[in-house]
UniProtKB/TrEMBL annotation:
The lineage of its organism: Bacteria, Pseudomonadati, Pseudomonadota, Gammaproteobacteria, Oceanospirillales. This is 2-dehydropantoate 2-reductase. It catalyses: (R)-pantoate + NADP(+) = 2-dehydropantoate + NADPH + H(+). It comes from Halomonas mongoliensis. One of its GO terms (molecular function) is 2-dehydropantoate 2-reductase activity. Keywords: NADP, Oxidoreductase, Pantothenate biosynthesis. Gene3D superfamilies: N-(1-d-carboxylethyl)-l-norvaline Dehydrogenase, domain 2, NAD(P)-binding Rossmann-like Domain.
């Protein structure tokens, strides 16, 4: 991947636009595709308050044409497989695909299905959009990239390293990992303990510290921890006190003022990523004969809200 690498970014939400604008302002060619075309002139506000302007090619998924060097799928988790199905027939065989979805649902399925190397990425970068032509990079984070495929090979490793270095040069620090499955589950665990609850009660992350919510959070973390222990997934090391409880409370503290992504979806009457986040946990609980009543109740509420037509419910 060189400076002139052509990146297609499919899914122009906050993350897709952040990646696209960062790559474009560091010299890469970027095409941004979504359901509707966005303005070609886009502005990125950095966490330091600097304004960066860039011109991207913008188009719709239906009108995408050409030969990308790499495709980044940055849709919501529930849109990834549909977007891939629409895209795949138009891609030259062997086109590398990078999956940026939350949770752990579409990644193994698309890794098996895609005709080319597939990498998964997980990031703690924070961003939000302001209108159609502006994205605010709200906070620096880190991106981890790895290969889920059992037939992982040296070429995939090289691709992951090249991509990590392109992102790092573009201002999104990234590194390769050889345990991306574990990393995706770790992020899923934190999301599962925070997102459904704040969406259910329409509160900021930091409100979970109140005595009214604290026991709920603690019991959800305990359910998540038991499931992950059965799956053989440990919490990440080296980030303060060990254990899932400590990790989740650290994230709550660090993001106290955040309106979490699932709450934003609920407030905007959009579908949520509950299937990708809670689904794998509930499936794993079933497989290991574990009870997870708190997670199951939140999943049922989120499902019900969508069945009831989202905006009409709750
Ligand atoms: O989904 C989100 O908003 C974030 O992953 C998290 C960690 C819950 C913080 O808001």
């Amino acid at each position: 991947m060189t400076l002139s690498t052509h990146h297609w970014i499919v899914g122009p939400g906050a993350l897709g636009r952040l990646i696209g604008l960062r790559l474009a302002t560091s010299g890469s060619l970027v095409t941004l595709a979504g359901r509707r075309p966005l303005p070609e002139r886009q502005t990125l506000i950095t966490p330091e308050g600097t304004r960066l302007d860039a011109t991207l090619f913008t188009t719709t998924l239906a009108n995408l044409a050409g030969t990308p060097d790499v495709v980044h799928l940055t849709t919501k988790a529930y849109g990834a497989e549909g977007a891939h199905a629409a895209l795949a027939p138009r891609l030259p065989a062997g086109t590398p695909l990078v999956l940026w979805q939350n949770g752990f649902g579409c990644q193994p399925r698309l890794t098996a299905r895609h005709d080319g190397p597939v990498l998964c990425a997980t990031t703690t970068e924070g961003a939000f959009v302001e209108g159609d032509d502006r994205v605010v990079h709200a906070g620096h984070g880190e991106t981890l990239i790895g290969d889920l495929s059992p037939s992982s090979n040296a070429a995939h490793g090289e691709l992951a390293r090249t991509l990590a270095s392109a992102l790092t040069q573009a201002g999104l620090p990234a590194r390769t990992v050889d345990d991306i499955r574990r990393r995706l589950w770790q992020k899923l665990a934190v999301n599962a303990a925070i997102n459904p609850l704040v969406a259910r009660f329409r509160i900021l992350n930091g409100d979970l510290r109140a005595p009214r919510y604290r026991p709920l959070v603690e019991s959800l973390i305990a359910e998540v921890a038991a499931i992950l222990a059965a799956e053989g997934i440990d919490p990440p090391e080296g980030q303060g006190a060990p254990g899932w409880q400590a990790l989740v409370w650290r994230v709550i503290e660090g993001t106290a003022g955040n309106r979490a992504s699932m709450l934003q979806d609920v407030l905007a009457a959009r579908p949520t990523e509950h299937e990708a986040i809670l689904g794998p946990l509930l499936d794993a609980a079933d497989a290991h004969g574990l009870q997870a009543p708190g997670l199951a109740e939140l999943a049922a509420w989120l499902r019900q809200r969508e069945l009831a037509g989202i905006g009409n419910c709750c």
